[in-house]
C-alpha cells in the first residue's frame, strides 16, 4: 500500500509537474540548441526529473550538480543565475541559466536549468562572416545554375537538427542525410555529389563509401 502524501508533499509534486510542462514548452521552442532540465532538489541523489533536447548526455535520475547542492545547503543562494559560462562533458562551450524554485517555507525544492550549445552558433557566426565578405567590384553574375544553394540549405537544416556543423556529421549520420537527399531527388542534380562532399568537408570517395548509389 502506498504511503499517503502530506499536503506539503502534494504541493511539491504539483509544482514539479508544472515545471516539467514549462520545460517541455521551452525545449520545443528552442530545439535543438537548448537543453532544458528540471531538478528535484528534494531528492539530490536522483535529482534530474526530466531533460528536453538532451545535449549533455545525462540521464533521468542522475544526481544534483554542484549548483543544486549549493542551493540545498543555503536557502539564501541566488535564485536566478543567468547566462553563465559552462561546458558539456565533451568540451563544447555552453551558456547556462539556472532558476531555483522555493516552496512556501522558502526552501529550495527544485530548479529549472537551460544550457545553450554555443559551439554551433560560433561555427554559424564564423561561416556567415566569411560567406558575407565580398570584393569592391560591382558585377552581377550567376554561378549556380544547378541550384546548389538549395542542396546546401537542406544539409544545413539536417545538421542543425542534430546540433552539429555539417563537417561534424559522423558516417551513420551522413548515410541518413544521403538517404534523405536521394529520396528527394537531389542526387540527380548535376555535380550534386561534389557539392555535398565539399559542404560536408569529405572526399567524393568517402561519400561513395558511405552509400552505394
Task: Give keywords.
single chain; 213 residues; alpha+beta; Beta-Lactamase; 2 domains
Task: Produce a short descriptive summary.
This protein has 213 residues and is an alpha+beta fold. 41% of the residues lie in helices and 19% in strands. The chain is built from 7 helices and 5 strands, in the order H-E-E-H-E-E-E-H-H-H-H-H.
Structural class: alpha+beta
| H/E topology pattern | HEEHEEEHHHHH
Per CATH, the architecture of the largest domain is: 2-Layer Sandwich
Task: Enter the CATH topology name of the largest domain.
Answer: Beta-Lactamase
Tell me which oligomeric state these chains represent: single chain
Radius of gyration: 23 Å
| Fraction in beta strands | 15-25%
Query: Could you give the count of β-strands?
Result: 5
CATH class of the largest domain: Alpha Beta
As for the number of domains, it is 2
Spatial arrangement of strands, main beta sheet: 2-1-5-4-3
The chain-level mean pLDDT equals 86
Low-confidence stretches at least 5 residues in length (pLDDT < 50)? 140-145
CATH level-four homologous superfamily name of the largest domain: PAS domain
What would you call the shape?
Answer: elongated
Amino acid at each position: 500500500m502506498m504511503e499517503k502524501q502530506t499536503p506539503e508533499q502534494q504541493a511539491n509534486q504539483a509544482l514539479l509537474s508544472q515545471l516539467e510542462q514549462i520545460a517541455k514548452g521551452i525545449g520545443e521552442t528552442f530545439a535543438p540548441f537548448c537543453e532544458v532540465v528540471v531538478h528535484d532538489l528534494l531528492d539530490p541523489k536522483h535529482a534530474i526529473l526530466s531533460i528536453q533536447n538532451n545535449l549533455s548526455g545525462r540521464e533521468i535520475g542522475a544526481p544534483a550538480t554542484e549548483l543544486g547542492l549549493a542551493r540545498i545547503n543555503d536557502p539564501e543562494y541566488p535564485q536566478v543565475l543567468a547566462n553563465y559560462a559552462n561546458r558539456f562533458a565533451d568540451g563544447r562551450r555552453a551558456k547556462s541559466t539556472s532558476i531555483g524554485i522555493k516552496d512556501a517555507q522558502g526552501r529550495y525544492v527544485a530548479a529549472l536549468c537551460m544550457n545553450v550549445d554555443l559551439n554551433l552558433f560560433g561555427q554559424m557566426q564564423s561561416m556567415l562572416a566569411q560567406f558575407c565578405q565580398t570584393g569592391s567590384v560591382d558585377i552581377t553574375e550567376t554561378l549556380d545554375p544547378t541550384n546548389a544553394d538549395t542542396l546546401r540549405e537542406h544539409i544545413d537544416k539536417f545538421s542543425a537538427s542534430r546540433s552539429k556543423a555539417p563537417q561534424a556529421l559522423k558516417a551513420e549520420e551522413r548515410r541518413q542525410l544521403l538517404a534523405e537527399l536521394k529520396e528527394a531527388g537531389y542526387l540527380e542534380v548535376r555535380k550534386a555529389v561534389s557539392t555535398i562532399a565539399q559542404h560536408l568537408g569529405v572526399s567524393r570517395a568517402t561519400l561513395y563509401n558511405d552509400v552505394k548509389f
